[in-house]
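SEQUENCE WITH STRUCTURE:
===
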Amino acid sequence: MNLSAPGNADKHGGNLAARFAEGPHVAASTTAEQRLRDWLAELEPQQAAAIAALLDHPFVRPILAGLAEFSPYLFDLIRSDPARLIRLLGCDPDAHLASLIDDARRAVLAATEEAEVMRLLRRMKSEAALLIALCDIGGVWPVMRVTAALTDVAVSSVQTALRFLLRQDAARGKLLSANPEAPEEGCGLIVLAMGKMGAGELNYSSDIDLIVFFDPDATTLAPDIEPQPFFVRVTQGLARLLQQRTYDGYVFRVDLRLRPDPSSTQVAISRDAALHYYEREGRTWERAAMIKARACAGDLKAGEGLLADIAPFVWRKHLDFAALADVHDMKRQMQTYRGQSEVAVEGHNVKVGRGGIREIEFFAQTQQLIAGGRHPELRVRPTLVALDVLAASNWITFEARDELTRAYEFLRRVEHRLQMIADEQTHALPDDKEAVERLAWFFGYASREAFARDLLRQLGIVQGHYEKLFEGDPTGTAKLPAIDYGAGPDDPRLLQQLLTLGFKKPAAVAQTVRDWITSDYRVFRNEATRSAFVEFVPALIDGLAHAEEPDRAVAAFDHFLQALQRGGRLITLLSQNRDLVALVALVLGAAPRLGEMLARQPQLMDGLIDPRFFGAMPDRQELSARLAATVRDADSYEEFLDRLRLFGQESLFLIGTRILSGTVSAQQASTAFADVAEGIVHTVHGLVADRFAAQHGRIKRQETAIIAMGRLGSREMTASSDLDLILLYNFDGENPDSDGPKSLQGAHYFARFTQRLISAFTTRTNYGVLYEIDMRLRPSGRAGPVASSIASFDDYQAHEAWTWEHMALTRARVVSASPEFRARIETVIREVLTRRRDPVTIANDVADMRRAIAQEKGETDYWDLKYAAGGLVDIDFIAQYLQLVHAHDKPDILDVSTMQVLENAARLGVLAHSEAEILRAAARLYHDLTQILRLCVSDRFKPETAGVDLQGVMTRAGDAPDFSSLEARVKETQSEVRRVFRAVLEGQ
């Protein structure tokens, strides 16, 4: 195979360059043109001339400039092999892709070494990825041709890699194949392509979802070979060939977690075990997943036979009551609880967010599940084909089909642009407007606003159709048994029902519910309010029954009801909006901490009613305005502290509720928690300074500053984060005495001031503690003074600080100071971080510190996402190490955010793009799950005692089909992160 051979020139005279019909919007003021010119200047004259000639075609220059400006991944592909770009721009894309796949298949057939196979497949994938991207960006191929091309590459890669492995085993005598050139025929190994690969709809940076089965009674194995170990080893080898990172990159990330019970089963499962599982334990989501299943590699005949045997599980002949209830459950799991009229563009997830791709897929699949048993024509895999058939069969209108088709195609193109930036499996729009504007330009829009208008229109159309599915029973009460919940603890039928639902103290729960319905709660003195409440008691009890601690959730709701004095408006709202009932049940059930806050302070519910609740997250400016309004007319210092605490708790409750309901990303929540804390710190700093000065006066030219460290510094806070703070000061050394009635001198003044500041945060009032404060990161830790002068801080960091203290300093951020003092501190920090350091010494220090933490905290509990081997600490340490050893030569690597540091490191060439992608994807997963765990669990998370609600919220946050798959993903991710940690820090 000669991958440098001339491309497939278009015999019709219209090569790829001539076919481009659109391209990115590249502003005249950008550096893209300069990057392009610099690159062309580096080329050999012949290559430069060839590309210069192609630039005469319309759209070629804006496309290449756009890749230079917006897509580090694609521009790297261009720069690494200019001949490849010339070849692609001069080819017929359809013929060239087919030839590329066929050439790779033949070359692998001739190869004898695994390393050569990996190289061939990766080079084929790189060329295909660049070709497909150019066809998408340039408007040469419609988006579904793009997804089909990506799928063709994936299917061929799986088939080719598997054939190589089986031929190797046949050569060793382990496989007795009748056809040595195609040993997969009759071998008994079945590879099913699932999801978008099965439907021919892969996205640009998609994982490939595979399930591997084998039939031990119909193989071509040698008599002495045991089927299961053999096929497990082959499956592991297949995954390794495709996804292991090498110098040439990777082919596809392989996800094997859609198999039955992935956390406890082998990666290859026997046919009989699979059929037994689907018949006895298969769930609705697995039925939906099997709609798109396709035998893609291995023994294709056996694969088709297996799918035929699984078909009765997927396609039920009759729609019974339980199946309809399952469909309702699927919808509720997908459903956002409120705020369907508002979608924030920034941070929106175009796959699983409201109005997104998954809602379109669910719209089609749900109706396929319901009717496909009786109507075989509905048993189709591609989403748009399913919409076509549904319309032709009068299940949906042709108008709905056309609108959803346009929305699907638009959202898939958005998804592709997001993933083309850095070859990351991401579906979320950036969190800030500037980054969204850059995405809009990459997509060809002239502005963020124009892109946002089109996006919101399509999301709204999808929401409208999606919300019409199964109207009339949004909370699922239709499937609940007819029980008199007011009968009390003497009714054995009620007690049995409560026991069945999972309550440990059914008599106490029955008495509480009867009290709600019959007793003289203040909120129910209005009969209309009581009647409205009684209507949704069954749905409420059903929701609480699946909570982590159902009895405790009922008690919390009881406290909430008792505390309500004028709650008629809220109860009426709950009774009329069952989605809000689901949200409150979720809060009380999944997150007892939030439930207790709501019970103590029912006014927190006001935030859920606010129409802005599910809109865009407030930025720092808006939060500051709200905070100022909250404390403006406080009559006393004590009232000021109370109002601050109430503001903090309201913010925590509202952000936490949005995390649980899946309407903000973990990154947005982290930033929001940090913005709230930063606003409060700045407010407290100012007020305490004024009150302290009224008593003790001020020192000439005094300055104080608060530096945020840790999670506040990096803006990665959770609901339970402490505040790691350092207080620095400066003053006129020749005039060290304060000028107040109770004068204090120099360092003593600032030590007392700092203690007063800490007290403002930690003093327990009627509304509790504001934040726990940790000042151990100050110079000399607990042994040092609580406040440090800027001069001593500078000297300490320069001459005494340990490596771990400089690691911590990478997250230092001044959150409250005058502009002049802030600039001086930032200069000191930057000078420390950009000092030249010995990489070996720093690597040893970082590795030693990681080992010490492992000894103290342990690292074997994979649900301890922070401290587990391959967890958050590993990722943070990699980012901190890279900054300390490279900031001298590459100061642009510096940032307080771990995610941004990893992006900077890849862009600056000090971290491989493949490793940065692994770490960034892992950090996103860990942050998504950590936000939920910090809300819902006060101690270590134990899956065996976690309630259905909490597992469900975590599963959705991890974008997994079920909790077992999430568990498997966490373990695999930690293994990958630890491998990168060793490669970066230990050279392994």
